[in-house]
Amino acid sequence: MSVDLIRFIIFVAILGGLAIVALSIPAFRPYLRKNPMITFLLGISSGFPLTLLIATMTFWLAKVGIDTATIGFAVALGIPYTLKFLWAPLVDKLPLPFLTRTFGQRRGWLFLIQALLFVSIWQLGASDPKPGDIGLFAVWALITAFLSATQDIVIDAYRIEILEEDEFAHGTATNQFGYRTGNLIAGAGTIYFASSEGLGLGWATAYGLTAFCIVPAILGALWAGPGKFVDRFEHASGMKAGQWLTEAVVNPFREFLTRHGAFLILGFVLVYKVGDAMGQTMLGPMIVDLGFPDLDYISANKLWGFGALIVGSALGAPFLLWLGMGRALLISGFMMMFSNVMFMILAATGNNYWMLVAAIVTENLTSGIGLTVFATYLSGLSSIAYTATQFALLSSFAGVGRTFMAGPAGIVAEKLGWVGFWGFTVAAAIPGMILLWVLWSKGYVVESIRQTGAIDDRQLKQPVGAWRIVGFALIVAGLVGVLLYQQLELGAHILAASLVAFVVGILLAWKGKGSAAAA
Question: Contact, 183 vs 51, CB < 8 A?
Answer without folding.
Answer: yes
